[in-house]
Design goal:
- The complex is a heterotrimer of chains A (197), B (248) and C (560).
- Chain A has 197 residues and is an all-alpha fold.
- Chain A has a single domain (57-196), classed as Four Helix Bundle (Hemerythrin (Met), subunit A) (Up-down Bundle).
- Chain A has helices spanning 18-47, 54-57, 60-85, 89-119, 128-155, 161-164, 166-196.
- The relative contact order of chain A is 0.15.
- Chain B has 2 domains: 15-93; 98-247, Cupredoxins -  blue copper proteins (Immunoglobulin-like, Sandwich).
- The radius of gyration of chain B is 25 Å and the shape is elongated.
- In chain B, the strands form 2 sheets. In chain B, strands 3-2-1-5-8 form a 5-stranded mixed sheet. Chain B has a 5-stranded mixed sheet with strand order 4-10-9-6-7, with helices on one face.
- Chain C has helices at 2-7, 12-42, 67-102, 111-130, 149-152, 157-185, 198-229, 255-289, 296-309, 325-351, 362-379, 381-385, 387-393, 397-427, 433-459, 482-510, and strands at 241-242, 245-246.
- Chain C starts with a helix and ends in a 50-residue tail after the last helix.
- The chains are: A mainly alpha (197), B alpha+beta (248), C mainly alpha (560).
- Chains in contact: A-C, B-C.
- At the A-C interface, helix 1 and helix 5 of A face helix 6, helix 7 and helix 8 of C.
- The structure holds protoporphyrin IX containing FE and copper (II) ion (CU) (2 copies).
- Protoporphyrin IX containing FE binds next to helix 2, helix 3 and helix 14 of chain C.
């Protein structure tokens, strides 16, 4: 079997590799997914007779902390990739490790937020705002967890590729980073829409 | 040339507008289909392999296909701008005044049409979810002064002829669709939304109300009846219903 | 064991054939369901002959189809035909098999993803089928699953429908990413954008529609799943009372939200059903007229416009939900505008016949049959797209006739054309011509006898989705007997599909063995080179002065 071209090489006339294009296409559909959920939010909120004061129901300080954490993790993810482009595997491991830990802290805080809501008898069925809050953040958390799985793979078993095919490995990390930034960006939107507006 | 489509009798004031557009569109469709079909048949015969052993590399010349496409677009714009939009606007933007109309509430449920006339005082009584019961599917509050004289029926509607009718449509459970084929009226009854619809019956007769939106296993039998009659007959029917109400 | 090996192969051809086999099975299942419905419509309340006993007492006591069961059949017929039959065949099978070949690639860009997409599809299909066997049976709220009906539907059928759709959506997304990346990245040297066969363009735009429209249904399915399982009220407005009981939910939701999300997917989805068909027909017509397609570029531009516009017409399915003049005018206008690129493509295909040297091969017959059938489907869309005439026609059998002309004698004919045309590519053998012709003539006649009367009934005001076919209604009486005609024709259609099935299996083993390029075609899928290079436009047929009446795309220019 012949290897599939442009898996690691950039195709000159299109300017991308296959995995990168694939990732951008995937993110386009993700934009539509979150866009649909957000438009459901807009439609339900604008049609509602009453809508709770969002920032009173949710904890803005916790979410602010989480926002800072995710932005930081985006930075470390980016720096993990630049470490690879500089050929520094040790540094990559540290930075990728930090990215993972930051993701885990985000999840921990989110779990605390959820359980705090449940403890106060608030759940998705309470009203449509909380329903949307749980759906939107839940879908986001699933995306984040998926990204963490990929990152863990790239830190653990997947890192073996560094020795056999460093260029391809670096590109994998780059594509994973694009995804990670997207998940981060989605959170920023959710933070504004669900906590602040 | 109106009835070749076999539509139900047109018995409301705006039915003629709907049917005219329907006929025009179908003429357009027919002309296009016959034109294209004729062309297709001609080409298939003329350019069969035995008549045309070697194909022309260049094929058809000229730009008349662009003209046809432009023609279709023009026809569509005319149908849209001069027929469809004005008729639609007359249905949804120009409601008659309630004083000059017969006003009815219709509340759809699986699988019946609950009909609510305001009675002699012209006011609808209060309704409340808590009052729902087998004998009170509308949840009408009879202790409300406005509701004391209200007339309710199930699956039965009466309208006086030549007077606008306003139906305030709603639903208790699923989405239903309130269709009066002879009035050229069809409107979804959507829970949570108030849907007014109006028409002016111009011909007397007895016909059926059909639910047009899948609303469950009994959708096929969600059938009601409506009668368009002279004002005198309509008044008599109201009086009869009012007397019936007093007996209870 | 060998079969198992096929199930895990990442070769695009094997995956394409897996898709083909699976989707043909689903088409058959979807068709079988509708045959039961057609019996019930023609003879309401009479026991279904032969198979009536198989459905179980809960569905069909004494073989008589219950209304609940009829609604299951209807919803699952639509779902299976659209999502598990036609799209997987048109995109999964034809796309997978042909796109890499036609762009001169060795495989799809992401072979393992490709296999994954097949597995998600199969899983989704099996979940859908399994839902027939849970208590309460399969989903029975129409393929549109309008809320609140679907939200509140008892049993697990609707929940499984959501799960099944979720899996199918994932499958489609993976497939779409793969097809687009393959076309963008793996085009052979020399194969510039405007040298792509029209089929590839059709698949390209189709994939974008899948990629960008399906997430809306995914979102909707998540929300509906929450409503059903967790008790949220996204689609449940306040003040609902079901069976005389006030419903105990928070309320505040919107029943129309579901329709918006659903149709935002489902309108582009109808273009997903027809664009690949147009692509197949274009290939077959170019080959069998022995001349280039007329107006290739305008066809490509039209496909782009179609794809774009298909995202802004969705609410023409919702004219009767209480729409003001402005919004209805907008959606009527976009609907009229979108008809123009469709007309351009159809005209180009017809004009391509002019000046040809037409071979009436079996694939060509199906492609030619497609043209007027697709035309009828498109034309009958006009009165449905004008809000005023939609009022009497909405939710009548007229609508059913309209979209079936597009997808049954339309898309299905194109898919048959494709199967007859590319069968030798996959197997090295021809399908039997005589059986193919009988299949075509029989299908053409029966299809029209099934779907033409639907327009007559619809104009008379007969509603769709009626368990008894409208028997109770006075306005249906004059056209009621057509139900029998249509059902007889449906059974006739089943009979003529036997010719196809026999042909398919017989030809696999015993078909006439042919060489590498039996149709003397020009496009790259017929090339036998291991690595190809394109030198010219896709359809160089009957070039004056050329040695043969076709010049393959990969044939080097003659040294002059
Ligand atoms: C070729 C044979 C076919 C026949 C005889 C047939 C017949 C029917 C009939 C009788 C109905 C039910 C109408 C009603 O309940 O009032 C129906 C519904 C439907 N069909 Fe088909 N059909 C065929 C093929 C297809 C194909 C190929 C597709 C899609 C690609 C399709 C998509 C649908 C859909 C979406 C519905 C609506 C289901 C619903 O009511 O929710 N059909 N068909
Ligand atoms: Cu109903
Ligand atoms: Cu549409």
């Amino acid at each position: 079997m012949t290897a599939i071209p442009y898996t690691t090489d950039v195709r000159p006339d299109t300017g991308v590799t296959n995995p990168k294009l694939g990732m951008w296409l995937f993110l386009a559909s993700e934009v539509m997914l979150f866009g649909s959920l957000l438009s459901a939010y807009v439609l339900l909120r604008s049609g509602a007779l009453t809508w709770p004061d969002q920032s009173a129901v949710l904890s803005v300080p916790l979410a602010t902390v989480n926002t800072v954490i995710l932005i930081a993790s985006s930075v470390t993810m980016l720096r993990a990739w630049t470490a690879l482009t500089a050929g520094n595997m040790r540094q990559y491991r540290v930075r990728m490790g930090v990215t993972l830990v930051l993701g885990a802290v985000f999840l921990a805080i989110k779990t605390f937020e959820y359980s705090d809501k449940f403890a106060h008898g608030l759940g998705p069925a309470t009203d449509n705002f909380l329903g949307l809050y749980f759906v939107l953040t839940g879908v986001h958390v699933l995306h984040l967890a998926g990204g963490m799985l990929v990152n863990a793979f790239l830190l653990g078993p997947g890192a073996r590729m560094w020795r056999s095919d460093p260029r391809r490995f670096t590109q994998r990390v780059e594509v994973a980073a694009i995804y990670w930034h997207f998940v981060d960006a989605v959170w920023l939107v959710l933070f504004v829409v669900l906590y602040l507006l | 040339m109106m009835d070749w489509l076999g539509m139900p009798v047109a018995a409301s004031a705006h039915a003629g507008d709907v049917d005219r557009l329907m006929v025009l569109v179908h003429w357009l469709m027919l002309v296009l289909f016959v034109g294209w079909g004729g062309f297709l048949l001609y080409v298939l015969v003329r350019f069969r392999r035995s008549a045309q052993p070697v194909a022309m590399h260049k094929g058809m010349r000229g730009s008349w296909s662009t003209w046809i496409e432009g023609g279709i677009l023009t026809a569509e714009v005319i149908l849209l701008a001069f027929f469809s939009i004005p008729t639609w606007s007359a249905r949804v933007d120009a409601f008659p005044s309630e004083q000059q109309s017969t006003v009815v509430r219709v509340v759809a449920e699986q699988y019946a049409w609950n009909v609510h006339y305001p009675g002699p005082d012209g006011l609808f009584g209060r309704t409340d979810l808590a009052l729902l019961g087998p004998s009170n599917p509308l949840g009408l509050d009879r202790s409300d002064p406005a509701g004391r004289d209200d007339i309710t029926t199930i699956n039965q509607m009466h309208f006086p002829v030549d007077r606008p009718v306003i139906v305030h449509l709603s639903s208790k459970d699923m989405i239903h669709s309130f269709a009066l084929p002879q009035m050229r009226v069809k409107q979804d009854a959507i829970p949570g939304l108030a849907q007014p619809v109006w028409f002016t019956p111009t011909t007397t007769g007895q016909w059926e109300i059909a639910c047009s939106q899948l609303c469950g296993l009994g959708h096929y039998r969600m059938r009601g009846f409506y009668t368009v009659e002279s004002t005198a007959e309509y008044e008599a029917w109201l009086a009869e219903e009012a007397a019936f109400l007093l007996e209870q | 064991m060998r079969f198992f090996k096929y199930l895990v192969s990442t070769d695009h051809k094997v995956i394409g054939l897996l898709y083909a086999g699976t989707s043909l099975c689903f088409l058959l299942i979807g068709f079988a369901l509708v045959l039961v419905m057609r019996w019930q419509l023609a003879y309401p309340g009479e026991p279904v002959p032969l198979v009536g006993g198989l459905f179980g007492v809960a569905n069909a006591p004494g073989g008589i189809v219950l209304p609940e069961f009829y609604n299951q059949l209807g919803a699952m017929h639509g779902t299976i035909m659209v999502f598990l039959g036609v799209v997987p065949l048109a995109v999964g099978a034809f796309g997978n098999y042909l796109v890499p070949l036609q762009v001169g690639a060795h495989d799809m860009a992401f072979p393992r993803l490709n296999l994954g997409s097949y597995w998600f599809y199969l899983a989704g299909g099996l979940v859908m089928l399994a839902s027939f066997f849970v208590t309460g049976g399969a989903a029975n709220n129409g393929w549109t699953s309008y809320a609140p009906l679907s939200d509140l539907a008892p049993g697990h059928g609707q929940t499984l429908w959501l799960v099944g759709m979720g899996l199918i959506i994932v499958s489609s997304l993976l497939g779409a990413i793969n097809v687009i990346t393959t076309i963008v990245q793996l085009r052979a040297p020399g194969l510039t954008w405007f040298r792509l066969p029209f089929f590839v363009w059709a698949q390209f735009i189709t994939s974008f529609l899948l990629l960008l429209a399906f997430p809306a249904l995914q979102a909707a399915a998540i929300l509906q799943g929450m409503d059903r399982l967790v008790g949220t009220s996204f689609f449940l407005p306040s003040g609902l009372a079901v069976s005389g009981q006030a419903l105990n939910v928070a309320g505040g939701g919107s029943a129309l939200l579901w329709q918006h999300l659903f149709w935002f997917l489902a309108h582009p989805e109808v273009y997903v059903l027809i664009l690949p068909a147009l692509g197949i027909v274009a290939e077959v017509i170019a080959n069998n007229t022995r001349k280039p397609l007329w107006g290739y570029r305008s066809m490509v531009y039209s496909v782009f416009v179609l794809g774009f516009l298909s995202f802004i017409v969705w609410a023409h399915h919702m004219f009767l939900t209480g729409m003001g003049t402005t919004i209805s005018a907008f959606f009527q206008a976009t609907t009229m505008i979108i008809s123009i690129p469709s007309v351009i493509i159809l005209s180009a295909l017809m004009l391509s016949l002019y000046g040809g040297s037409i071979r009436f091969t079996t694939p060509m017959l199906f492609a030619l049959g497609f043209l007027p059938m697709f035309g009828i489907g498109g034309l009958t869309g006009l009165p449905l797209g004008l809000a005023t005439t939609d009022v009497p026609l909405h939710d009548t059998t007229y609508v059913v006739g309209h979209f079936h002309y597009l997808v049954a004698p339309g898309t299905l004919f194109a898919l048959f054309a494709g199967i007859y045309y590319w069968f030798p590519l996959a197997t090295g053998r021809m399908m039997n011509d005589l059986l193919g012709r009988v299949h075509f003539v029989g299908s053409l006649v029966c299809m029209n006898l099934i779907f033409m009367p639907m327009f007559v009934q619809g104009l008379a005001g007969v509603n769709r989705r009626l368990w008894d076919g409208g028997e109770q209604y006075a306005h249906a009486q004059s056209v009621l007997s057509l139900n029998v005609t249509m059902s007889m024709a449906a059974f006739g259609l089943a009979f003529f599909q036997l010719f196809f099935m026999v042909n398919l299996f017989m030809s696999l083993r015993g078909g006439r063995v042919v060489g590498a390029n039996p149709w003397q075609a020009t496009t790259l899928e017929w090339s036998t080179e291991s690595s190809v290079r394109a030198y010219r436009d896709p359809y160089v047929y009957s070039l004056p002065g050329a040695a043969a009446d076709f010049v393959p795309q990969d044939q080097p220019a003659e040294p002059s």
